[in-house]
């Protein structure tokens, strides 16, 4: 989900709910402790320079069960972040503490924001020599030099 998408959703939303893909709900008394833009410049394993940008939201909760972030307040936080940081309309990444800090994508199911699973991958698969799919070969069709059925070499 891009920044413009969450802003549109927040316009018509009364309550904020965040849920993990497995159904586990982020406690309703969460805070958004950071909104920022991450600019990542790196080189992949194939030697290609890359630039990635993401908007970062950090969700956190404590023992303050009476706290409840409303959609309007989050809209104001985003607007202030856009004004002060010059945020671009790029994909949102959400940090959320579990056994360690997890990084999630963001989706919306009509009532709640879903923290979606993110995975790693090799960005230079064409240059790494990693085959896309293992070729399937029938053993009966293999031609091994000097060793044929009945030749006594096996």
Tell me the layout of helices and strands.
Blueprint: H1 3-11, E1 18-20, E2 31-43, E3 49-60, H2 71-85, E4 92-97, E5 101-108, E6 113-116, H3 125-128
Parallel strand pairs: 1-6, 3-4
Antiparallel strand pairs: 2-3, 4-5, 5-6
What would your notes on this structure say?
With 154 residues, the protein is an alpha/beta fold. Helices cover 18% and strands 30% of the residues. The chain is built from three helices and six strands. The protein has helices spanning 3-11, 71-85, 125-128; strands at residues 18-20, 31-43, 49-60, 92-97, 101-108, 113-116. Strand 5 and strand 6 form a beta hairpin.
Key phrases:
single chain; 154 residues; alpha/beta; six-stranded mixed beta sheet; elongated
The gross shape turns out to be elongated
Structural class by secondary-structure content: alpha/beta
Low-confidence stretches: none
Task: Return Rg in Å.
Answer: 24 Å
Helix % is 10-25%
State the major sheet: 6 strands, mixed
- DSSP, total strands: 6
Report, as a whole number of angstroms, the end-to-end distance. 59 Å
Count of helix runs: 3
Order of helix and strand elements from N to C terminus? HEEEHEEEH
**How much beta, percentage-wise?**
25-35%
């Amino acid at each position: 989900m891009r920044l413009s998408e969450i802003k549109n959703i927040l316009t018509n939303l009364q309550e904020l709910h965040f849920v993990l893909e497995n159904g586990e709900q982020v406690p309703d008394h969460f805070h958004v402790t950071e909104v920022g833009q991450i600019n990542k410049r790196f080189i992949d394993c194939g030697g290609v320079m890359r630039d990635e940008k993401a908007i970062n939201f950090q969700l956190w909760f404590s023992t303050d069960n009476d706290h409840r972030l409303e959609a309007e307040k989050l809209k104001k936080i985003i607007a202030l972040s856009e004004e002060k940081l010059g945020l671009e309309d790029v994909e949102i990444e959400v940090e959320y503490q579990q056994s360690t800090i997890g990084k999630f994508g963001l989706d919306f199911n009509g009532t709640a924001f879903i923290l979606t699973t993110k995975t790693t991958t090799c960005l230079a698969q064409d240059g790494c020599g990693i085959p896309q799919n293992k070729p399937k070969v029938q053993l009966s069709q293999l031609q091994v030099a000097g060793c044929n059925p009945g030749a006594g070499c096996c």
